[in-house]
Amino acid sequence: MTKSILMCAPKFFDIEYEINPWMDTNNPVQPDKAAKQWQKLYAIYSEQLGWDVQLIDPVEHLPDMVFTANGALLYKGKVALPLFRQPDRQPETPKFETWFREAGYTELFLPKYDFEGEGDALIWNDILFAGYPWRTDKPAHAEVADFLGIKTISLQLIDPRFYHLDTALTIVSSDTVALYPKAFSEESLKQVRAIVPHVIEATDADAVAYGLNAMSDGTNIVIPENAHDLIAAYKANGMNVITCPISEFQKSGGGVKCLTLELK
Ligand code: ARG
């Protein structure tokens, strides 16, 4: 299935502040290496998979704008914009808003509660899995779901290393989701297992390698190169696995999926 996505080049990407357990301002980004890794991901999407890749201009001193997944959540042409929890990222919202208006989107929504876009909101079939509490407030789920007109299941994240839902759960296909069980409350795990026919469980090593921060179209899956068990599981399921190094982005607590926003 061909997808349309939004990316942002890592021109100003760095560790300028610390807002999650992965970020350490003493462990700066190597710009050339980050550019190479990002270019590789861009080429996988645009050349290898033939997806439509749109770009938003990077902005100086908005180092995390490269993580476009946090820039919105789209459903049926409607755009829910983010209200970032940390002031450092709040100036990104008007940049994304301008991009969507210029691209011709007319139904835009600004939530009242903290909401970090697709980072905490993943659509599986016609259900929205929405994460809380690290970066997104639980009440944001209802306001965003009302605007988009989608049924929502709130999932509680309990490990600060997996602070966005997309670091702990991958939408693999219409019948499969992969997740890191230890990142979720018991109740939330039960809810996922009750409705998703096939749940793949990630090992500690794969979760820490950001293996769940992957991008799938149901046939092809793009995933960090060192998520070994997940890669084996996807291959055993007959998927085409494409690997990409993301070490520079993981210094910021990001990976493949964080660098990608779906323009549904
Ligand atoms: N440094 C960024 C932050 O902490 C990383 C964002 C990762 N994005 C994601 N969708 N998980 O906000």
Q: What's the total number of strands?
A: 15
Helix content: 25-40%
User: Which fold name corresponds to the CATH topology?
Assistant: L-arginine/glycine Amidinotransferase, Chain A
CATH H-tier superfamily: L-arginine/glycine Amidinotransferase, Chain A
Care to describe what's here?
The protein is of the alpha/beta class and 264 residues long. β6 and β7 form a beta hairpin. The longest helix is centred in the N-terminal third of the chain and has 18 residues. The chain is globular and about 40 Å long. The chain binds arginine. Arginine (ARG) binds next to loops.
Helix and strand arrangement:
Layout: E1 4-7, H1 31-48, E2 52-55, E3 73-75, E4 78-80, H2 92-102, E5 108-109, E6 121-124, E7 127-132, H3 138-148, E8 151-156, E9 169-173, E10 176-179, H4 186-195, E11 198-201, H5 204-208, E12 215-216, E13 220-224, H6 228-236, E14 240-244, H7 247-250, E15 261-262
Parallel strand pairs: 1-2, 4-5, 7-8, 10-11, 13-14
Antiparallel strand pairs: 1-15, 3-4, 6-7, 9-10, 12-13
The structure holds arginine.
Arginine is lined by residues 19-20, 23, 64, 67, 69-70, 89, 119, 164, 166-167, 252-254, 258.
Salient structural properties:
264 residues; alpha/beta; L-arginine/glycine Amidinotransferase, Chain A; 3-stranded mixed sheet; 7 helices; 26% helix; globular; binds arginine
Please outline what is shown here:
The chain has 264 residues and is α/β, with parallel strands linked by helices. Helix content is 26%, strand content 22%.
